[in-house]
Write a structure and sequence with these properties.
By secondary structure, the protein is mainly α. It folds into three domains: 309 residues, no CATH class; 73 residues, no CATH class; 87 residues, no CATH class. It is 61% helix and 6% strand. The protein is built from 20 helices and seven strands. Strands 4-3-5-7-6 form a five-stranded mixed β-sheet, covered by helices on one side. A two-stranded antiparallel sheet has the order 1-2. Helix 4 packs antiparallel against helix 5. The termini are far apart. The relative contact order is 0.11.
Length: 539
Amino acid sequence: MNPFPVKEAPVPLQQTEKRLSLVATFLLIAGLFIHLGMVPLRLEEPRRALIALEMIFNDNFIVPTEMGEYYYKKPPLYNWLIIGGYQLFGQYSEYACRFFSVLSYLGMGFLIFLIGKRHVGQRFATYSALLFLVSADLLFYFTTTAGEIDLFYSFLTLASFFSLFHFYEKRQYTLLFLLTYLFGALGTLTKGFPSMVFLGISLPVFFLYHRDFKRLFTLAHLSGLSLYSVIVVGYFWLYAQYNGLDQYFAALWSQSSERTVLENSLLSAVGHLFIFPLETLKNIAPASLLIIFLFRKRWLATLQKNRLIVFSILIFVSNILIYWISPGTRSRYVYMLYPFPVMVLTYAYFYFLDHQTGEVTHTWQHRIFTRVVTVLIILAVLTCLSLPWIPSLQEIPYLIWLVILFAPVLGMLLWFHLKAPAYSLLQIIGLAILLRLLFDFTILPYRATHTGAYQDQQDAQAIHQLVQEHSLHLWEDTRFSLSTVFYIERAREKVLARSYQPNTRDFFLADQALLYGQEYEVLYTFQYDNRDFFLIKFR
């Protein structure tokens, strides 16, 4: 017996909603790619970009290196993607580093739309996809540092989850296992062991829920396992032709285990239990505002009316638990799980609509939600009007024109909201997209010249001007910002490797603390982590 209930007939997407959602999608895509390459690489971005550079310089796409040393913490699939970006745009640019990651983020929204349309309806699919894409943590933070690995990895993992559900619904079991394991294998070559954990949790839980556990003991499952093994074992076999695997596997295990409760104090674990759910709700806002629509009688029975929603609850709960009890968890580790609460909350919202007309019913939940949207739009208008008086933005020459453009648009959104509160959900999505566009033209230009990464870039350019084509090395165990290293290597198109032998011919970048007893001439000084570093020549 199939424990999933029969899908209800969906409410169709109205023409007004369709047109507005298309406009919103266009503006969202524009907002994501405008100024994508403006801010210098920062945080973990330069590490990914640097490893991709060194694969090109070393003419070796199997073995990742970082400053000429073996890099073990991540397999290289995402670096290959960055290399593809370099080739596509013809330069080692910030835009190229981030392009495919943002494309993966949009791909997640597209997957949500496809699965939602097929298994619930077009209206649900449209709103679920847009609500995920305007999740606060993604829209205003991670898509601005998109050179990191997590959006691409989340896309692969979400594709694996959806393959499990969709092809089980179609009773295409061989395709189910092949695609679920294919995306899992690609995830393993991207981030290592977490994909094995997702597969190891999701498959047994899914088939146990279906009372179909015997499905795991079939040739179809064996075919999926075989495909996974061929891809993953094949890569590591190729890697073993160049270097041993012991340190590689140890580093991959360390990367996964350091986040767990086993590697953290009990106090931090207890605190994380309380903070993590609140952070998750904050990160998926504005979708999290819809949680009030769960405050009704028989809310669980309501959610159980659709197979996809039941699946979403099942996968989210079973996979989030290990991160919930792991104090080292960061929000970016669970981006692939965010679509599931978004879909559940979107479904809860639409269940409150009249199934005949699609109009909002007059409940206290809708009244609260509408008023919250009103307040948020008013705050956005006031914020826009206050931009000329924010000191840190005074350097932006076109600031007043931004106010002249965006304030009336936000005012029109407020007018539309007051006139047609039935569209409150679409209006808050539009508000988030407009704020992202405003963010693109204010915050990103400011960050482009007022971050540590900008100074790192300037230091790299100064060093390159002094060294030119002469040999340059890192002295012993000198370590500083990877942004500086990336921009040096990009300018020189050479690996910046370490040296332990001083000579008077070459240039060296050195930590002051490692130069004790040496005679040298300082040619340039820069700082990292409140410590002095020098460009020197030994005497």
